[in-house]
Specification:
Keywords: Membrane, Transmembrane, Transmembrane helix. By secondary structure, this protein is mainly alpha-helical. It is built from four helices and two strands.
Length: about 100
């Protein structure tokens, strides 16, 4: 029950991340607060996923969670979240913003 609830919560934060990221840009320009929260929700999702593996890996409740049976694999989740956040930020900075500012002028 707790594992399912945490998994749904992590999924909800990931969906919120995607929605906030794609809606951070509009006719009024870049909404910095919404853009920040898009990253924050990704980080929260990663922390929840890390907590899931920390508390439930090796307990036999989920074969997927059981794959994260070492500290290295658990920490890899946090590294992946940091890399995803950096990649998303780089894509926005290098690909989206130049096009957006060019078309806005």
């Amino acid at each position: 029950m707790v594992l399912t609830s945490l998994s749904i919560l992590a999924l909800a934060f990931f969906v919120a991340h995607v929605v906030l990221l794609f809606t951070s840009f509009g006719k009024g320009g870049m909404q910095k607060t919404k853009y920040f929260w898009s990253h924050a929700t990704l980080w929260i999702c990663g922390i929840i996923a890390f907590a899931i593996t920390w508390f439930f890996a090796g307990k036999g409740e989920s074969s997927t969670v059981d794959l994260f049976d070492s500290t290295t694999k658990k920490v890899a989740i946090l590294i992946l979240v940091a890399v995803l956040s950096l990649v998303a930020h780089s894509i926005v900075k290098l690909l989206v913003m130049p096009r957006y500012t060019t078309t806005k002028k």
